[in-house]
Each structure stands twice: as structure tokens, then as C-alpha cells.
Amino acid sequence: MVSSQSESGLLSSEGDSQRTQYPYVTGTSVIGIKYKDGILMAADMGGSYGSTIRYKSVERLKQVGKHSLLGASGEISDFQEILRYLDELILHDNMWDDGNSLGPKEVHNYLTRIMYNRRNKFDPLWNSLVLGGVKNGQKYLGSVSMIGVHFEDSHVATGFGNHLARPILREEWREDLSFEEGVKLLEKCMRNLLYRDRSAVNKLQIAKITEDGLTISQPYSLKTFWNFGAFQNPTVGAEGSW
Amino acid sequence: MPKEHANWSPYDNNGGTCVAIAGADYCVIAADTRMSTGYSILTRDYSKICKLADKSFMASSGFQADVKALQKVLASRHLIYQHQHNKQMSCPAMAQLLSNTLYYKRFFPYYAFNVLGGLDSEGKGCVFTYDAVGSYERVGYSAQGSGATLITPFLDNQLKSPSPLLLPAKDAVTPLSEAEAIDLVKTCFSSATERDIYTGDSVEIVILNAHGVRSEHEQLRKD
């Protein structure tokens, strides 16, 4: 007896094609901090495909217009689409040719609206974004999640960074960090993530944005330290164990 | 082979508590400034209070993205009202607008728990309290959000509000002075902070009276 194949079996109807998604290639945490002269942001260059670290040269920190820096975690293809939206936004802003340019606050608001409106259509962009920048001396650092939850603060992080980096930042962040101190603080956080986040890779970029402009560093690696006494002599204090 | 499912919810609860108390010639609207998700704190310094009109302030807790969208819709509608009527919306008018706006999304609600506070056209304090889909009521005081269950019984005891079922209707507005009401609100929040993990960091208190608006900040426990 032949059973008729219902639509929800192998084929999906047109209405279902743009609904709940799963992320495929993902980036892990992004961390951002305000420092004396502007914003510092760090992200590693990993693109994971589930539990495989498939891509190791993914740039997850990008410039947006004259005044902003965007870092993204989550689905990389959705990040690329967001960059296309922003490209068009900045293009139209430039075409006015009126001496005005969109600042980080405006870009953050635009991103929030995009993320929220996609969430409303049950077709989210699967990203957590960090948007930082400086305009007219005003530093700005904000975050948006895939469902549109947004806020600004002196330090932000996405994903695992919220659990592992922000506690460090809450203890050690100060208003007047120098560039070197800021980088050291970010590296401390990134090292911590490297130890404990399985999707982290030891190849990262740090980006700096100030009133004068933006630089994204060349990729580099962090030194890691595995010679903890507890690892070297695991049975000290537990005689008879192995 | 069963495919691995990543599922997501369009809602999140970003926590927090809101309180408002109506007085004879003032209104106190307060909310904590903590924004959380799950067991993490996102930021300790986020305002949940929004000025909708000269004499209407709304405090909202719940899903922050929906709260922000709701605030934007109401601000936009108020601007149109001002263009059409050449005046500010009264608090009771804003109360009705908020209710209608919430019910409009009855089948995909704004996950927002609101308290509207302000002065009515007689200058008396008024507080309106809402559920997520727009059911509302004018009351003498209200608490909404994660700490509401801790605060409401305390306010019931301290403010001894008359039952809304009494005839003739008794005024629910508190006879307390403005300073006493502010002190009461601070007590509410420090108590709620002790037991509710989503309430804390600091409380923002907005006071509306005949002389205008002012706001106070008080630090709360950050754990």
C-alpha cells in the first residue's frame, strides 16, 4: 500500500522555508572595552562548524563607516549579510555628501532595529554584535543580541565572554586605561577564553578605534601556561591516587 | 538520522522590578537598573523608566527589546497627538493608548510588564498598572516585574489602601508625604534586592509634582 508523502516529510512548503534556523559556521566570543582614547575590541579568528574548528582565518572585526567598529559572534554568513546592510547604509550616508556621517550610536540603533525586526518575523540573524566607536570625542560601546536585546556599557562581551571575560573586566577595568593596559586586559580575557572555551582558537586580532581612526592588528597568538602544579603533580595531597 | 536541533525563543526575560506610588499632589515612579539574561548580568546601569509625556512616566520590566519597541511606538504616537491637538497627552489618555498598543499585539505580545505613573488633569497622582496584553486599572500604587511578589504585600501593609470594591469609591491615593513615599520606595527596593536575584545594582526614582520632575539614584546590593 502506497502511503502519500505529506509535505512536512521530505519537502518543506514555501511558507516554512524562512523560519527557525540553526547556525552552521559560527564565531565565538567578542570582547569590547572603552579606554582612555577610544574603544578596544578583541576576537579570535575561528569559524567553527559544529564541533570542528573549520576555518582559522575569519575576520570577525570590521570597520563601519568613519567612526565605528563592529565585532560579531554567531553565524558567519549572517554577519556577512549584516555587513552588506551596513555597506548600503554607509553608502547612502556618504552619497548625501553633506559633511555629516553616521556615528556609533546611530549604527548601533540601526543594527538593533534590524535584529529586532528579523526576530519579529521569526527569521533571526543568528549573531551577537558588539558595536564600538568614537565621534566628536564621545566614546560609545554597545551590544545587540540576535533577538534585539541591546545596551551600552564600558565593557561588553558576547557568548562565553559574558561568563569568563566580564568578571575580569568588572574587577580590573578602569576609566583611564592606556592603550597598553587595555590590550593587556583584553589579552588576559582572551587567554582565559582560550583555556576554557572549546571553540576558541589561538589566533586573534585586536582592533582599536579612536577619534583619529581605526586599526585592526595583524593576527597573532597568545602565550599559554600549562605548568600549574596541580597538573604536574596531580596526586600531591591525595596519597594513593593516580 | 535525527538532525541536531538549535531552537530559539523570540522572548527573553531581562529581569528587574518597577514600582509606582500615587500621592495627593505627586507621583513616584521607580525601577532598578539591572539588566540580566539567564544567570548573567548584562549591565548594571540600564534605565527602565521612560518619559512618555510631560506628566506621564512609564516603568517597564520584562523583555527589554520589546520594552524599547513599545516605548518607541508610544513616543511616536504622542508626537502625532501633539501635532494634531497642540497639547501634551494627559496621563489617563496615555494609559488608554498603552492598553490599546499592548492589545494590538495580543497574539504575539510585547513581553513587557508596565507601570504608568503621572499626574492627572487635577494635579493628583495617578498610577496605572498593566499586564502584558493591555489589561489595566487605575490604582494607588503598584509593583511589576521579578520583585513584584516581594514588594506588593509590603506596600499593601504600609499603604493600607482601601478596597476598590467599596461603595462609595474611596480614593486610593496615599496620604503620605512625598519624602515619606520616596523613603518607602527605597525600602521596597533594598528589601527586594535581598531576595530577588534579578533586582539590584541601583534604583532610579523619578518624582513628579506641581513643580516639575526630578530623579534620584540610590545604590543597591550588586550581588
UniProtKB/TrEMBL annotation, chain A:
Pfam families: Proteasome. GO terms for biological process: proteolysis involved in protein catabolic process. InterPro entries: Ntn_hydrolases_N, Proteasome_alpha, Proteasome_beta4, Proteasome_bsu_CS, Proteasome_sua/b, Proteasome_suB-type. Its main location: cytoplasm. The keyword Cytoplasm applies. It is found in: Cytoplasm; Nucleus. Signal peptide: none annotated. The keyword Amino-acid biosynthesis does not apply. One of its GO terms (cellular component) is cytoplasm. It comes from the Eukaryota. CDD domains: proteasome_beta_type_4. Keywords: Cytoplasm, Nucleus, Proteasome. PANTHER family: PROTEASOME SUBUNIT ALPHA/BETA. Belongs to the peptidase T1B family. Non-catalytic component of the proteasome. This is Proteasome subunit beta. It comes from Cynara cardunculus var. scolymus (Globe artichoke).
